[in-house]
Structure formats: C-alpha cells, structure tokens
Write a structure and sequence with these properties.
Blueprint: E1 19-20, E2 24-25, H1 34-47, H2 51-64, E3 71-73, H3 75-81, E4 85-89, H4 100-114, E5 118-123, H5 127-138, E6 142-148, H6 149-154, H7 156-164, E7 168-172, H8 179-193, E8 197-200, H9 208-218, H10 220-233, E9 239-244, H11 249-255, E10 266-273, E11 285-288, E12 291-294, H12 320-327, E13 331-336, H13 338-351, H14 358-370, E14 379-383, H15 392-399
Parallel strand pairs: 4-14, 5-6, 5-8, 6-7, 9-10, 9-14, 10-13
Antiparallel strand pairs: 1-2, 3-4, 11-12
Helix pairs in contact: 4-5, 4-9, 5-7, 9-11, 10-11, 13-14
Bound molecules: pyridoxal-5'-phosphate.
Pyridoxal-5'-phosphate binds near residues 100, 246, 247, 249 and 313.
Length: about 400
C-alpha cells in the first residue's frame, strides 16, 4: 500500500501534474485559465516561503482574527459519558465564527500581492462568504460571492452579513441550488475574468493551487493545537481527532501537524453527512471542479444530488487530500444523519455552554458514540469549527427550541 511520505508536507505530496497518489487532484481547467493559474501557483510558492509575507499573515491571524482559539476540557460531558476525556478546540471563537476565516484572509492577502482588484468566492453555509466579504472590506478589495438560492434562504443571516460588508451576493439558481452549483458558477465567472479577479475557493477542493492555498491556511488550527496539547499534557497523549468533512478544509487544518504520528497514537476520524458521503459510501472517482476525487454519481456517471440539513456539508465531492488519506488508511471516515447531528447538539447543550453549528454537530455525534468505549487516559478532541447562531432558525424548526 502507498504511504504518506513523512518528510514532505501533505499538500506537497503530489506529482508534477498535481496528482496525489497519481490519481487524485490534478488541474482540469479551461484553456483561458491555465496561464493565470500557473501565475498564481508561482506566486503562492514564493509567498509561502517569504518571511515578510508570513509575518503579515501572522499579524492578521493575531490582530484581525483574534489570535489563538481556545482549547479546553468538557468536564461535564466527559463525566456523563464515562470513558475517554473529551476536549474541544473551539475554532468557532475566531473573529468570523468558523475556520473559513483563515483561508478567506489568506486569499485576500494573496489577491493584494497579485495586484488583482477583485475577489470571487463560493459559499454554502455562508461562513466562507461572510469571512471573504469581511477580509475584502478590511483590505479594500471588491468582492463577489456565489451562493445557491436554496442556501441563500436557509443561511439568510450570513447573507445579510455579506451584503452589509459590501460584497455582491450572486444567486445561483441552477441544479440543486446549493454549494456544488455555486462553486461551478464561481469557477465559470473566474474563467472569463481571470485577468482581473482572484479566485478564492471555499474548501480544500479545486485545481491543485486552490486546494493548497486553502489547506495551507487552515493548518494554523493544528499548529496552535499541538502546542496547546503539549502545554496541557507535557506530551502528545493517545489522541482521537474528530472532524466533520464537507469539502474537507477544517479537517485538513486540524490534522495537518499530526499526520506523521502513527495511527495508533493519533487516530484521525472524519465524519461526513449521511447523504453527502463520498468517502464513506465507496463512491467512484470523477472529475469535479477541476480535480479528480471520490464523488457521488448516478448510474450514468453524472454528479448525484446530495442532502444534508447542514448547507456546509451538502456537496457530492471531497478534497483530493482526503481521498489520499483514505486510500493510505491514515484517516478513517464515517457518517452521521441529520437526526444524529441534532441529537448530539441536544446533549452538548445540556452539559456544556457550547453552541456548535450543524456542521461540527456531526463530529460531536461521533464523539458521543465512541467516548464511552474508550479508556480514561485516551483523549478525544473535537474541532468545533463553526458557531451555531447561523443555524438557530433551522434547528428551532426541527426540534422546537434553540437555547439562549
Ligand atoms: C462551520 C463549517 N464547518 C464545516 C464546513 C464544511 O466544510 P469543510 O469540510 O471544508 O470544512 C463548513 C462549510 O461551509 C462550515 O461552514
């Protein structure tokens, strides 16, 4: 079996044509975008090694996004479930309410460096859209956000925020009217405007450079977490790192610094939404949004419809990086239903003062399922990657209440 190479960063483990394990990813892009994407690739490779740019990024992460996000033990939930200790990396505490703040900010910084005057991005749950709109406003860049009309209506709070920040929200009324269509429309727009516009892709998906920019940015989460764990435990104990998987940007960011530990030492578990679960259902490889990946398809090979109560998970494909982690067996993937996610929220609310969004609720459900089966010296950490306020209305409609 092919293995992850220990001495090469995860995002760099592709061949010359951008393929991971020679089969996932690549650059399936329109002719007109080839040169601008090549230029962006060269710029990104320069910037990620440039001390001045790194200082600027770190300054934005600290003073604009609010610095290190909290890491703490959920004493009550641990006691209630018995078994493993349950800890939370509360990324939802960031200024911007979700991990999307990292790659939105980095994309805006790269846009500035490229000399381009506008940004175009896709969004499903509205978290990337809202953070991109914020970063664009902060750096005085024009911003267009593509969003499916179904998501515009179910994530209205974030849409309001994007507009208030001065972004143009472009409604996408094709197909399932969700994230998959928003990404397609945004990429189409980019192909016709790539001389003037920087494309900011909302997850670790897309042609090679886009997924690299995203995963490189969210990796801030695991850099912080690793030092927080060592401060707390004096070492890296036996860990279970649980993360929800939509496109896969939060999970890659949460796991990046832990990939080289053995899987008996640090277990990585990704949780997909039950009806948007290419990794859990052994989906075949297809090309979607510029890259080859496991992707839900119908019997004719057309991209299949998905369903999730959570707009951020309603996506038929998944990052080529996760396809690689699955095939090398470095990470394990499972899935959770809408009902499972809602039940997890009820239990979290009962025992803890946390308000996760519907996306991380899927990871919390897996935590609640496995914690009682594990030993007390084992540590589960859940990436609480989004804040629930955007979902209050959906949740209230489903279960009748949402806590204050
Ligand atoms: C809060 C939150 N978590 C998770 C996701 C899923 O995306 P990804 O797997 O790229 O982190 C989203 C997507 O919008 C989100 O908003």
């Amino acid at each position: 079996m092919t293995k992850i190479k220990k001495n090469i960063p995860l995002i760099d483990q592709h061949n010359k044509r951008g393929f991971y394990l020679n089969k996932f990813g690549g650059n399936f892009v329109a002719e007109t975008a080839i040169k601008p994407i090549e230029d962006l690739s060269n710029l990104f490779e320069k910037l990620r090694r440039n001390k001045k740019f790194l200082r600027k990024r770190d300054k934005y992460f600290k003073y604009y996004l609010g610095g290190e996000t909290p890491f703490f033990k959920l004493e009550n939930l641990t006691k209630h479930l018995g078994g493993a200790q349950i800890w939370c990396k509360d990324v939802s505490a960031i200024n911007g309410d979700a991990h999307k703040a990292y790659h939105a900010t980095v994309n805006a910084l790269i846009c500035k460096e490229s000399g381009k005057k506008s940004l175009a991005g896709d969004t499903g749950a509205g978290m990337f859209g809202k953070n991109l709109a914020m970063a664009a406003k902060e750096m005085k860049i024009k911003c267009k956000i593509f969003m499916g009309t179904k998501d515009i209506s179910r994530q209205a709070l974030n849409v309001k925020f994007m507009k208030k920040a001065g972004a143009e929200v472009v409604p996408v009324d094709t197909g399932s009217r969700t994230l998959v269509d928003a990404v397609s429309e945004c990429m189409r727009y980019y192909v016709s405007n790539c001389q003037t516009t920087h494309l900011a892709v909302g997850s670790a998906i897309g042609a090679n450079v886009f997924l690299k920019i995203c995963a490189w940015s969210t990796s801030q989460i695991s850099r912080e977490l690793k030092s927080q764990i060592i401060k707390e435990f004096g070492k890296i104990p036996k860990l279970h790192l649980l993360n929800v998987i939509g496109g896969g940007s939060s999970a890659i960011g949460f796991w990046n610094e832990f990939i080289n530990y053995s899987k008996n030492h640090v277990k990585l578990t990704g949780v997909e939404a039950k009806y948007a679960a290419p990794l859990t259902t052994n989906a075949k490889i297809a090309i979607l949004h510029g890259a080859a990946q496991y992707c839900l398809q119908d019997k004719n090979g057309q991209i299949a419809d998905t369903h999730s109560i959570s707009a951020g998970l309603d996506y038929p494909g998944v990052s080529p990086l996760h396809c690689m982690l699955k095939d090398t067996k470095r990470a394990k993937y499972t899935s959770c239903s809408d009902e499972g996610a809602l039940n997890a929220l009820k239990l979290i609310w009962k025992y803890e003062n946390l308000r996760p969004s519907l996306e991380p609720a899927h990871a919390w459900a897996e935590c609640i399922r496995i914690a009682p089966k594990l030993k007390k010296d084992e540590v589960i950490i859940v990436n609480n990657c989004g804040s629930g306020s955007k979902d209050a209305k959906i949740i209230k409609n489903k279960i009748g209440y949402y806590p204050k």
